[in-house]
Amino acid sequence: MVDITAINEKIKQESAFIDLLLKEIGKVIVGQKDMVEKLIIGLLGNGHVLLEGVPGLAKTLAIKSLSSAMEAKFQRIQFTPDLLPADLIGTMIYNQKDGEFTIKKGPIFANFILADEINRAPAKVQSALLEAMQEKQITIGAETFKLEEPFIVLATQNPIEQEGTYPLPEAQIDRFMLKVKITYPNKEEELLILRKNVASDFPQINPVVKTEDILNARKLMQEVYIDEKIEKYILNIVFATRSPKEYGLDNLSELINYGASPRASIYLALGAKAMAFIRRRGYVIPEDVRGICQDVLRHRIAVTYEAEAEDITSENMIEEILNKIEVP
User: Fold this and answer.
1) Which of 216, 247, 263 corresponds to the end of one domain?
2) Residue 117 lies in a domain
3) For the segment 131-168, what is each residue's pLDDT rounded down to a tens digit?
4) Which residues of 177-212 are buried (b: 16+ CB within 10 A; e: fewer)?
5) Contact at 8 Å (CB) between 178 and 156?
6) CATH number at residue 107
7) Do 169 and 278 belong together in one domain?
């Protein structure tokens, strides 16, 4: 038998640093609580996060703030159409004096990688990033280097500008644990943003969490209890994206080109555990799964031309699936 009370107490004590992290980031990020939480969930779940939103919604600032609040190495890479794989991972440099090649490591060798406007780089650069994201390693010449943990790619993309952009390959999109969509702040939040940015003393973020805290939290998160009923609930949601007719969602069968991959099931479980950890709980409840569902699935469901013509998005379909599948 699993001692849920003991796990609960342990999680309550060990997850105290989450409040410190949220408080420190809150110095500069107004509102956008959901975005900040999803970034932390990506960090705890050892997954990469793609942020999508129009310019000026503090996507880059949120990522920089998260890395500043931790004692970790941070690198910002501005993706452009003329970027080369060597600009990302490094290259071999010939030393005339010694007559030998030496390796110069690129900016990818860090804990936090901010891939700004990731969809502006061509396929060769994306494939170089893909190895780092999936294998947590980099190959330069004949040598392969393991990347230091924690390693997380936090990418941004602008949905409204298509000129000079390259659609991300499906294989790469699937490797992002979460795709978080960011919306405009409300009036009260924007007033606070305005005041903070015109004031003479803009708040500074101090490191309050060590990388060891995150690595320990990842190990502890494995102990978060997830009941078999919740596991089946996750599988039903994912399988409903592949075989909607079996779940009484006949109307979706003509709208979904292909459903979510097995990574969706894995990341839904990991995301739900991370959500429970942030909420200082030692067990997963259905609301944890529902709370992370859109971010895990929205980029894993390919819609048909019919759906696009009717202006039906993957988010609409996920909402319909969640309303249909019985909650345990």
Assistant:
1) 216
2) yes
3) 888 888 888 878 888 988 888 888 888 765 555 566 77
4) bbbbbbeebeeeeeeebeeeeeeeeeeebeebbeee
5) no
6) 3.40.50.300
7) no
Residue 124 CA to residue 127 CA, distance in Å, equals 5
pLDDT of residue 1: 61
Residue 11 maps to a domain: no
Output 202-206 pairs: Cβ under 8 A, ≥24 positions apart.
202/28, 203/27, 203/28, 204/27, 205/24, 205/25, 205/27, 205/28, 205/65, 205/68, 205/69, 206/24, 206/68, 206/69
Measured between alpha carbons, how far is residue 308 from residues 116, 173, 257, 313, 316 in Å?
28, 19, 11, 7, 12
CA distance 125 to 117: 13
Residue with the two structure tokens 């849920």: 4
pLDDT of 219 above 80: yes
Compute the CA torsion angle 155, 287, 266, 135 (nearest 10 deg). 30
Q: Which residues contact 161 (CB under 8 A, 6 or more apart)?
A: none
Q: Which residues contact 200 (CB under 8 A, 6 or more apart)?
A: none
Alpha-carbon dihedral sign for residues 196, 198, 199, 205: positive
Domain hosting 310: range is 224-324
Please count the residues of the chain. Answer: 328
Question: Do 190 and 45 share a domain, yes or no?
Answer: yes
Residue appearing with tokens 């075989």: 243
Give me the residue label for tokens 């705890």: 44
Q: How many structural domains comprise the chain?
A: 2
